[in-house]
Specification:
single chain; 214 residues; mainly alpha; 2 domains; 8 helices; 5% strand
Amino acid sequence: MIVARNCRKWIIFAKMKNTVQNIIILLLALLSAVPATAQDDKRRAYIVGAAEHKGDKIPHITLPTVHIFTPLVFRNRNDRRRYDRLVHDVKKTLPLATEIRKIIIETYETLQLLPDEKAQKRHIEKLEKELKDVYTPKMKKLTLRQGKLLIKLVDRQCDQNAYQLIRLFMGSFKAVFYQSFASLFGASLKKSYDPFGEDSLTERVVIQVLTGEL
């Protein structure tokens, strides 16, 4: 009886040992199947910001804003064409509006460093000539529709409409002159961007272009 009992214990131990071995072999097989890059990722270190929470410092990561839009429904082919045209126009004019914003920021910072109003005026006159040389050929390639869109996108990118910007940097006389010139073509430099109203579809397209969805 003692021998039989010992034999049963041995058999159970042997089975457990085989089971453990099989588990170890399975784990080794799974680990060897993991790509090297995935294994390397475990050893990588990432530098992130820190925030204080209840006396302790914890990692702080700002995630990008995710925009979720309802699918567009077009009533007919004309609606679809208008939308496609808007996407094309935004892709063409948004980079220009962004460039204008950059120029305005750089100009403002430069003007702060100049000694007096006379030096600032000389800088503005020089800049105006340079901008005309660079951007006149680009502006000539825009349609009237794209020109009107650009005026609105300038307001979006700069938080000020084109009329306000011209008056700020070049004076009221030139602002009135350019506004009068634009009105001859049915445009207005005072036109503001309304992302929650008439420009809501444009805003959607702008966001999708900026995020690479379009």
